[in-house]
């Protein structure tokens, strides 16, 4: 038996751009009363903990400190953001070997402490690394998942909201499959407050559906490349996405989120980790939601799964 989980505690492994932005966002969220920052660069973790703690008088009291895997062992959620990020021109899949090596030094440290909480993977390629974390940890599938296309879905809602002049929270549309180049915009179920997206487009004076859907899906897919080319890394959008997932877990809210999770047969997908909508609550991934897909979306989803399976099959996880 591992240490009993402290529901008000979170750990972040990797305190670079993404880890520190996530820590800053979570500090302001009021979700946790204790936050441990772990990094191979201990000074970095200590510096981030101090800097973020100095904002506490403007938020709510909590204990923020740099620590190690013993300190993380009773966290309700361990968020892993450690690893190399994309350089301009690199795809997420290009990072795989570097980051698998890093995961081999992190995940066993968590597993050997019989960790009982939720392991949330953010490092890229997130689908492959979530699968790696699942295998290396031996933890149950519901407690190991990745942020997947939660961020891409936020980008999709934002861009559609801008296009249609409507609050992105009224846009119900999602990206599924790989968090990467083979991701799929699920247009067939996209709607704005229950109105099919094409109908809403026409109400707003947009009639070029084929051209617009192609352009918007491309913009979503290329968002990270554009941001990386301009400012070297992306971190605020993912930090907000991680906060949303943490809220779902800590408050047992059970939203449907496209997290990256091990597939058990919905739409005929097996033995692959990718993003499909799931109910997320205190037990992690609680239910895989069989949302309808068009034939074309289904075919592209299987192609995305095949691409991920091929990469995973090449890895040496011994
Ligand atoms: N899933 C998403 O939507 C999403 C979005 C943005 C970035 N990312 C990914 O997040 C990861 C981090 O990106 P970043 O911009 O913060 O990179 P970064 O280089 O700024 O930070 C990485 C951090 O990991 C630490 N680290 C390296 N090896 C470690 C180890 N063995 N143990 C503990 N810490 C270790 C480094 O010291 C560094 O502080 C990348 O893989 C990036 O592609 C994912």
UniProtKB/TrEMBL annotation:
<feature type="binding site">
    <location>
        <position position="99"/>
    </location>
    <ligand>
        <name>NAD(+)</name>
    </ligand>
</feature>
<comment type="similarity">
    <text>Belongs to the LDH/MDH superfamily. LDH family.</text>
</comment>
<comment type="pathway">
    <text>Fermentation; pyruvate fermentation to lactate; (S)-lactate from pyruvate: step 1/1.</text>
</comment>
<feature type="binding site">
    <location>
        <position position="147"/>
    </location>
    <ligand>
        <name>NAD(+)</name>
    </ligand>
</feature>
<comment type="function">
    <text>Catalyzes the conversion of lactate to pyruvate.</text>
</comment>
<dbReference type="InterPro" id="IPR001236">
    <property type="entry name" value="Lactate/malate_DH_N"/>
</dbReference>
<dbReference type="InterPro" id="IPR036291">
    <property type="entry name" value="NAD(P)-bd_dom_sf"/>
</dbReference>
<dbReference type="InterPro" id="IPR022383">
    <property type="entry name" value="Lactate/malate_DH_C"/>
</dbReference>
<feature type="binding site">
    <location>
        <position position="172"/>
    </location>
    <ligand>
        <name>beta-D-fructose 1,6-bisphosphate</name>
    </ligand>
</feature>
<feature type="binding site">
    <location>
        <position position="44"/>
    </location>
    <ligand>
        <name>NAD(+)</name>
    </ligand>
</feature>
<feature type="binding site">
    <location>
        <position position="234"/>
    </location>
    <ligand>
        <name>substrate</name>
    </ligand>
</feature>
<dbReference type="Pfam" id="PF02866">
    <property type="entry name" value="Ldh_1_C"/>
</dbReference>
<dbReference type="InterPro" id="IPR015955">
    <property type="entry name" value="Lactate_DH/Glyco_Ohase_4_C"/>
</dbReference>
<feature type="binding site">
    <location>
        <position position="18"/>
    </location>
    <ligand>
        <name>NAD(+)</name>
    </ligand>
</feature>
<keyword id="KW-0963">Cytoplasm</keyword>
<protein>
    <recommendedName>
        <fullName>L-lactate dehydrogenase</fullName>
        <ecNumber>1.1.1.27</ecNumber>
    </recommendedName>
</protein>
<feature type="binding site">
    <location>
        <position position="92"/>
    </location>
    <ligand>
        <name>substrate</name>
    </ligand>
</feature>
<dbReference type="GO" id="GO:0006089">
    <property type="term" value="P:lactate metabolic process"/>
</dbReference>
<feature type="modified residue" description="Phosphotyrosine">
    <location>
        <position position="225"/>
    </location>
</feature>
<feature type="binding site">
    <location>
        <begin position="14"/>
        <end position="19"/>
    </location>
    <ligand>
        <name>NAD(+)</name>
    </ligand>
</feature>
<feature type="active site" description="Proton acceptor">
    <location>
        <position position="179"/>
    </location>
</feature>
<feature type="domain" description="Lactate/malate dehydrogenase N-terminal">
    <location>
        <begin position="9"/>
        <end position="146"/>
    </location>
</feature>
<feature type="binding site">
    <location>
        <position position="39"/>
    </location>
    <ligand>
        <name>NAD(+)</name>
    </ligand>
</feature>
<dbReference type="Pfam" id="PF00056">
    <property type="entry name" value="Ldh_1_N"/>
</dbReference>
<dbReference type="InterPro" id="IPR001557">
    <property type="entry name" value="L-lactate/malate_DH"/>
</dbReference>
<keyword id="KW-0520">NAD</keyword>
<comment type="subunit">
    <text>Homotetramer.</text>
</comment>
<feature type="binding site">
    <location>
        <begin position="152"/>
        <end position="155"/>
    </location>
    <ligand>
        <name>substrate</name>
    </ligand>
</feature>
<feature type="domain" description="Lactate/malate dehydrogenase C-terminal">
    <location>
        <begin position="149"/>
        <end position="312"/>
    </location>
</feature>
<feature type="binding site">
    <location>
        <begin position="83"/>
        <end position="84"/>
    </location>
    <ligand>
        <name>NAD(+)</name>
    </ligand>
</feature>
<dbReference type="GO" id="GO:0006096">
    <property type="term" value="P:glycolytic process"/>
</dbReference>
<feature type="binding site">
    <location>
        <position position="86"/>
    </location>
    <ligand>
        <name>substrate</name>
    </ligand>
</feature>
<dbReference type="InterPro" id="IPR018177">
    <property type="entry name" value="L-lactate_DH_AS"/>
</dbReference>
<keyword id="KW-0597">Phosphoprotein</keyword>
<feature type="binding site">
    <location>
        <position position="69"/>
    </location>
    <ligand>
        <name>NAD(+)</name>
    </ligand>
</feature>
<feature type="binding site">
    <location>
        <position position="157"/>
    </location>
    <ligand>
        <name>beta-D-fructose 1,6-bisphosphate</name>
    </ligand>
</feature>
<dbReference type="GO" id="GO:0005737">
    <property type="term" value="C:cytoplasm"/>
</dbReference>
<dbReference type="InterPro" id="IPR011304">
    <property type="entry name" value="L-lactate_DH"/>
</dbReference>
<feature type="binding site">
    <location>
        <position position="105"/>
    </location>
    <ligand>
        <name>NAD(+)</name>
    </ligand>
</feature>
<keyword id="KW-0560">Oxidoreductase</keyword>
<feature type="binding site">
    <location>
        <begin position="124"/>
        <end position="127"/>
    </location>
    <ligand>
        <name>substrate</name>
    </ligand>
</feature>
<feature type="binding site">
    <location>
        <begin position="122"/>
        <end position="124"/>
    </location>
    <ligand>
        <name>NAD(+)</name>
    </ligand>
</feature>
């Amino acid at each position: 038996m591992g240490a009993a989980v402290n529901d008000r505690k979170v750990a972040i492994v990797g305190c670079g751009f993404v880890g520190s932005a996530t820590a800053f966002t979570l500090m302001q969220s009021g979700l946790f009363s204790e936050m441990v920052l772990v990094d191979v660069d201990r000074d970095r973790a200590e510096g981030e903990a101090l800097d973020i703690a100095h904002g506490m008088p403007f938020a709510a009291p909590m204990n923020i400190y740099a620590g190690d895997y013993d300190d993380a062992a009773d966290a309700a959620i361990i968020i892993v953001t450690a690893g190399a990020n994309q350089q301009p021109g690199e795809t997420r899949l290009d990072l795989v070997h570097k980051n698998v090596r890093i995961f081999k030094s992190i995940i066993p440290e968590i597993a050997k402490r019989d960790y009982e909480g939720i392991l949330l993977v953010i490092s890229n390629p997130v689908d492959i690394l979530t699968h790696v974390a699942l295998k290396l940890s031996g933890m149950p599938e519901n407690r190991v998942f990745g942020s997947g296309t939660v961020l891409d879905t936020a980008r999709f809602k934002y861009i559609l909201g801008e296009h249609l002049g409507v609050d992105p929270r009224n846009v119900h549309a999602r990206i599924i499959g790989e968090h990467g180049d083979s991701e799929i915009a699920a247009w067939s179920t996209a709607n704005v407050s229950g109105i099919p997206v094409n109908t809403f487009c026409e109400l707003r004076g947009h009639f070029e559906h084929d051209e617009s859907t192609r352009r918007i899906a491309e913009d979503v897919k290329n968002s990270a490349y554009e941001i990386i080319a301009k400012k070297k890394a992306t971190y605020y959008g993912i930090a907000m996405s991680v906060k949303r997932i943490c809220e779902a877990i800590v408050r047992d809210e059970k939203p449907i989120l496209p997290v990256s999770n091990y597939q058990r047969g919905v739409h005929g997908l097996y033995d692959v980790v990718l993003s499909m909508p799931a109910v997320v609550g205190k037990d992690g991934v609680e239910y895989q939601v069989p949302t309808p897909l068009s034939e074309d979306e289904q075919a592209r989803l299987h192609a995305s799964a095949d691409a991920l399976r091929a990469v995973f099959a090449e890895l040496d996880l011994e």
